[in-house]
Amino acid sequence: MIQSSRIALPVGTTLDRFVKSNQTQFSYDCADLSQLLADIVLGAKIVNREVNKAGLVDIIGAAGSTNTSGEQQYKLDVLANLAFEQALLQGGQVCTLVSEEYEFLVNLNETGKYIVAIDPIDGSSNIDVDVSIGTIFSIYRRTSEAGVPNTITDVLIKGSEQVVAGYILYGSSTMLVYTSGRGVNGFTYEPALGEYLLSHADMQMPKKGSVYSVNEGQSNFFPAPVRSYLDYCKVERYATRYVGSLVADFHRNLLKGGIYLYPGTLEDPRGKLRLVFECNALAFLAEQAGGKATDGNIRILDKQPLTLHERTPLYVGSSDMVDKLKGYF
Ligand code: FDP
């Protein structure tokens, strides 16, 4: 006998249905947003599939190449980059793709209305050890004339101009979290259905937490204000939690409250993280969830990138904690 009670269970709200039923949340054409997210989701499904079998097949380990920042590329970095590029190319909404894995911009479709910035795999050094990794993306509305290929100046856009930003976290479950400028919503991947289902509606970052996430092994080289703030965290007996994958650390702090710090060092005052590919998206999400993001002096979303791969210190998380840190600068 068919267990009708089981099959009659509600499936939940799929990402696509959510986007369509919240059309008013997006100032531009909702069909565009739907298609763009569907393309990113397709890329993420491919990455998710590969991540889940990473230990079984030959995709872990170094690819033998370096990316534009001189960092070792992992095979999954290369594969994920290709998956997203292909998905966005097929979708046709995107005029230009900028990726952490490419030195220059890639023009995909001259009539596309959107520019996408992506870090296909964040936390690459965790791939080999089965620790959570992520994908980070930002979507901007094109401002240049349609039909003409974009140049670098067309894609060096402040984070405050993002129309959508989000990340996919490949963790104990796979989640997509995004904002289109009216709050933050999280969707959990249901592999059997191949769908992202709304699981975390209207996410709010607690105003204050008791966790700080930083590579404290480098603290002797951090600027004095950051060292003072870390002393304060210890006086308060905050817990240290540092996965070493920005998306995973950010996600935990988004849910539970906390602050993520990646300062500059004395030798390298701009730190490690990229403004365009990593910091802008997370800053937009943080602010939309009630949190804050700064480089210590300037709001991340107000920073004008001068180069594609520009780096910046990043302090992002619960608003009271970021304010407290800023007080030391
Ligand atoms: P990774 O180099 O492994 O890609 O984005 C860079 C990043 O990881 C972040 O995800 C992570 O938070 C940070 O670098 C880790 O850097 P450290 O090893 O210097 O702590």
Question: Could you please describe the fold and organization of this structure?
Answer:
The chain has 329 residues and is of the alpha+beta class. 31% of the residues lie in helices and 24% in strands. It has helices at 4-7, 15-21, 30-52, 75-91, 152-155, 224-235, 246-256, 275-288, 319-327; strands at residues 62-66, 72-74, 94-99, 106-107, 114-122, 133-141, 162-170, 174-179, 184-190, 195-200, 211-213, 239-240, 259-262, 292-294, 314-317. The strands form 3 sheets. It has an 8-stranded mixed sheet with strand order 4-3-5-6-7-8-9-10, sandwiched between helices. The chain is globular, with a radius of gyration of 20 Å. The site of 2,6-di-O-phosphono-beta-D-fructofuranose has 11 residues, from loops.
Radius of gyration: 20 Å
Helical content class: 25-40%
- SSE pattern, N- to C-terminal: HHHEEHEEEEHEEEEEHEHEHEEH
Total number of β-strand segments? 15
The N- to C-terminal Cα distance equals: 68 Å
Large-scale geometry:
globular
Continuous helix count:
9
Instruction: Please describe the biggest sheet, giving its number of strands, its sense, and whether it closes into a barrel.
Output: 8 strands, mixed
Placed side by side, the strands forming the largest sheet appear as 4-3-5-6-7-8-9-10
Our estimate of the beta-strand percent is 15-25%
- Unique ligands: 2,6-di-O-phosphono-beta-D-fructofuranose
- Structural class estimated from helices and strands: alpha+beta
- Mean pLDDT, rounded to whole units? 91
Which residues sit in consecutive blocks of at least 5 with pLDDT less than 50? none
